[in-house]
Structures are given as structure tokens and as C-alpha cells.
Amino acid sequence: MSGDKHYKISYLDVVAQNDIPSLSKSASILIRKAIEQRLATDPIGYGKPLRYSLKGHRRLRVIHDRVVYRIEADTVLIVAIKHRKAIDDC
Q1: CA 43, 49, 51 angle in degrees (round to 5)?
Q2: Number of domains in the chain
Q3: DSSP state of 64
Q4: What is the reported pTM?
Q5: pLDDT > 50? residue 16
Q6: Of these four, 22, 43, 84, 88, which has the most CB atoms within 10 Å of its CB?
Q7: Mind listing the pLDDT tens digit for each residue in 19-69?
Q8: Per DSSP, which regions of the chain are E strands?
Q9: Can you give the residue range of the structural domain that contains 65?
Q10: Phi and psi dihedrals of 56, rounded to 5?
């Protein structure tokens, strides 16, 4: 774990407009907490690399949902938050 570095969190518009509002309140709280505590501090250590069409992206498992993201310099860009069955290659 890096611990020293703090990554900025950014969301694609589609995530903010579609994915987050479709989550249940309890799932939304858990996912937000996971993003703030894990991805903001160590996105490489906590995330699993994806393959095939999502190569270059990583995923974080939060119960039955997956947070798909990529790391760009000091920013973690969230590209999708969906149920595990809705994400390809997870």
C-alpha cells in the first residue's frame, strides 16, 4: 500500500447520471466508502486488472457490484459501477 499518495477520484458523466442513481441506498453507501478508503489511497493494490476489451482498466469488488476504473497519473477515473453480471470480463 502506498499510503503516502492520495489519488483524486473522478467519474464519467454516465456513471454519475445512470450507475450511481440506480444503486440501492445501502449499496451506494458501501461503494462510496470503498472508493474513498481504498481507491483514493491504493488503487493498484486493491483493484484487479481486467482483460480483453477492458484491458487497461481495473475493478474493485464491493459485495455483488463492481467498480470499474482506470488510473490516469494521480487520478482514478471511475468508468462504471454495475452488478457483477453486467460487467464484461470480471
Answers
A1: 155
A2: 1
A3: T
A4: 0.89
A5: yes
A6: 43
A7: 999 999 999 999 999 999 999 999 999 999 999 989 999 999 999 999 999
A8: 8-11, 48-49, 58-62, 65-72, 75-83
A9: 8-86
A10: 95, -10
